[in-house]
Amino acid sequence: MKHLLIAAAALSFALNAHAEVRGKEVDYHAGKLVMKGYLAWDDAIKGKRPGILVVHEWWGHNEYARKRARMLAELGYTALAVDMYGNGQQAEHPKEAGEFMNQVFASADHGRARFEAAMKALKSQPTVDARDIGAIGYCFGGAVVLNMARSGLDLKAVASFHGALGTQTPAQPGKVKAKIRVFTGADDKMIPPAQVAAFKEEMARAGVDFQVTEYPGAMHAFTNPDADALGKKFDMPIAYNATADQDSWQQATAFLKATLMPAK
Asked: CA-CA to 131 of 20 to 30 Å: which in 120, 172, 192, 227?
């Protein structure tokens, strides 16, 4: 009986190991535009901790971005899944997604203002140490976080997953504060080898601490399990790749921990 009680207690602990993770919708403003984000944190952790911004794919702020925020909360961060389109807008079709995305990329100031509004909202949270902020992004979001790093925002760590790597405003020596990690598919038709090579040259010239991991056989959107269905539905060259997804997450979280939670 004693052994059974111990086993039951161990099982209960395992099942409730992350039961303290909380999530809530949060509204913040970029000018007059209402942005609808999602905050995730573990309330069993006492005191302040690093904060991470999670930037969505071109579909908009959806459950996928929220899931990644909760995964980060389980690792001890406070994470904010941001809204880059405003009012929580989500695209139902690639044409609409492209229109939303192009509105953000219409000017560097436009996108930066929305990102900085999210950054301000995250820093204001009582569970966040405003000195330790990182950002990750997927697809469109990957391009966003890289552009924010290029612009010199006070980010310590930035990770891009299958994000566009090209830019009209290349990184300049001494301006980029963030360490950068990029995960891209070697078979990604939207991020061709020439773009990857140009990005590496850009980062090297600017003296950035960066690494690029390329996954053979991986296509665009390789981290999103919904990519297969979306690819078939809209005839898009995207697909999920479990190996690349798992490895990129393992590498990215190790990078975030080393950068934002260094051993003391």
From this structure: 172
pTM of the full predicted structure? 0.92
Token pair recorded at residue 64: 């996928």
**Closest-CA residue to 81 (of 104, 64, 59, 98):** 64
Q: Is 217 left (phi over 0), alpha (psi -120 to 50) or beta?
A: left
Q: What is the pLDDT of residues 32-51, one digit of tens each?
A: 999 999 999 999 999 999 99
Report the alpha-carbon distance of residue 54 to residue 68 in Å, rounded.
7
Q: Name residue, tokens 């069993």.
A: 44
Q: Within a 10 A sphere around the Cβ of 245, how many other Cβ atoms?
A: 20
- What is the rounded distance in angstroms from the CA atom of residue 69 to the CA atom of residue 24? 11
Q: What is the pLDDT of residue 263?
A: 73
Among 229, 197, 223, 171, CA closest to 57: 223
Cα(237)–Cα(217) distance, integer angstroms: 12
| Burial of 162 per CB tally in 10 Å (0-12, 13-18, 19+) | buried
Q: What is the mean pLDDT of residues 234-261?
A: 98
Domains and CATH numbers, the chain: 21-260 (3.40.50.1820)
Could you list the beta-strand ranges (E) of 75-234.
Answer: 78-81, 128-138, 157-161, 179-185, 210-215
Measured CA to CA, the distance from residue 83 to residue 144 in angstroms comes to: 12
Encode pLDDT of 189-240 as tens digits: 999 999 999 999 999 999 999 999 999 999 999 999 999 999 999 999 999 9
Spatial neighbors of 43 by CB under 8 A, at least 6 apart, are 20, 21, 22, 127
Among 202, 211, 85, smallest CA distance to 158 is for 211
